[in-house]
Fold this protein.
Amino acid sequence: MSIFNRISTSSFVNKDLISYLTGNVIFNQLIRFYKAISLRIYRFGNILRYLQALKKRWLTYSPLFLASTLKAFSINKKSNNSLSKTSRGFTLPELIVTVCVLAILAVIATPPIIKQLTRMEAKRIRYALTTAIATAKAESYIRRQNLIVCLADLQGRCNKNNDKAILLFFDINDNKNFDENVDELLDKQRLAPRYSRLQLRAGNRHYIKFWGDSGKPRGFFGHIKYCPTSSYNQSMYQISFNQVGIVKYKPSQAHPTGC
């Protein structure tokens, strides 16, 4: 039961009191409603003031923001243009200067490099010749067969002035030359000097013969001469051998080669 019904059913309350209380309750409800409406209006007013302030700031700072954006875009565009210009390659003067500098460096560095190559070649051929003669002496005695050593070209033709290779072979047909289909090739070492030439001096022969009964070049003695063909090559020597098969290295300072 509501308050109004309870009041109206009471016997001791008159009609004036009921009307008073009823009007008071309605008034309180109106006050509450007004306060709620006022709060909402206040909050809405705050929102309006916030929007007005935001609009004012936008109108103030938007031209500056737009100007800074355009400025940054123009700077970026200029940097891209400068990069595209610098990445196009060398100009003709730059290319000429670069080529000249490289040529000067090549001229300066070439002599020491060639001298080092000539020294390496002289050592390589020296060890190849001494090893070949020592191997021929040992193999001829072990196999009890006559063995021929000669300077040859790339096709295997023996000649005392050839310097492409050194051959060690068993001369089966005894013609003092290497025949591929007849003779037995023991070893072939490539020489092919670039800064020198080789010469075999063993009397009037173009070969060295090691006898199978003793392993010695009996009746053969002489040397293989290493002579430079380049001005950068200062190495000159002889690889000599005697009739008992002793091999010696003789540099030009101790034994003139006559190159």
Remarks:
- The first strand starts at residue 147 and ends at 152.
- The first helix runs from residue 3 to 9.
